[in-house]
Amino acid sequence: MRFALAAQLLWHLAGAAAAWWHTTLAVLLSLMLAAGLLTPVAAALCACYHLLYVGHAGSLIAAATAVALVLMGPGAYAADARLFGRRKILM
Asked: What is the DSSP string of 29-52?
């Protein structure tokens, strides 16, 4: 997921006909996901971004990956886990 956003960022910076806010949004979401900061919110915004604004074949796969990240939550070494504590699954 992080690599898909980075590739999208490079595509925007390479001279594609996109507005400056597309690039800004891609950079912000990439940094938030890479740091693990507000992971469910950033992943939900990423899914919306890919479904609404990105028009290539891989956008559906990237959006599905973002939805999976929303459902799974942050990892053990994410900033969210450090700030809010790790979730424990009890069975």
From this structure: HHHHHHHTSSHHHHHHHHHHHHHH
